[in-house]
């Protein structure tokens, strides 16, 4: 099964990443995070997306899914093309975009509340 998705339909595989990244940006789900990175996982079957010092993974997925509903800011990127995967926790959450699994990972998350507090502080 290695490289199966990427080799069988590379356009769909890369479109899933593009739509995910566009939706994360448009939904502002990762505001306050830094060191955003992504790479193919499981030999081309999944995408892995991670960040540091931002929201918990489940918070990012909640914000993203809210932005997809009711023609929100991420509606055009993912409407009808995304569903939440199983078992989110503080560090990992899972989406399926265009039938391609996407894992979101929060390294050293601080949580949405802390992100908002930091963003509201005047810069020195």
From TrEMBL:
Q: Which domain of life is it from?
A: Bacteria
Protein name as catalogued: Uncharacterized protein
User: Taxonomically, what lineage is the organism?
Assistant: Bacteria, Bacillati, Actinomycetota, Actinomycetes, Micromonosporales
């Amino acid at each position: 099964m290695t490289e199966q998705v990427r080799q069988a339909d590379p356009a769909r595989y890369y479109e899933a990443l593009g739509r995910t990244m566009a939706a994360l940006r448009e939904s502002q789900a990762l505001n306050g995070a830094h060191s955003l990175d992504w790479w193919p996982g499981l030999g081309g079957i999944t995408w892995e997306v991670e960040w540091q010092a931002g929201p918990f993974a489940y918070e990012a997925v909640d914000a993203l899914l809210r932005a997809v509903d009711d023609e929100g800011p991420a509606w055009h990127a993912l409407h009808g093309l995304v569903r939440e995967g199983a078992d989110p926790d503080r560090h990992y959450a899972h989406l399926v975009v265009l039938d391609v699994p996407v894992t979101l990972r929060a390294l050293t998350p601080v949580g949405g509340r802390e992100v908002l507090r930091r963003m509201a502080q005047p810069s020195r």
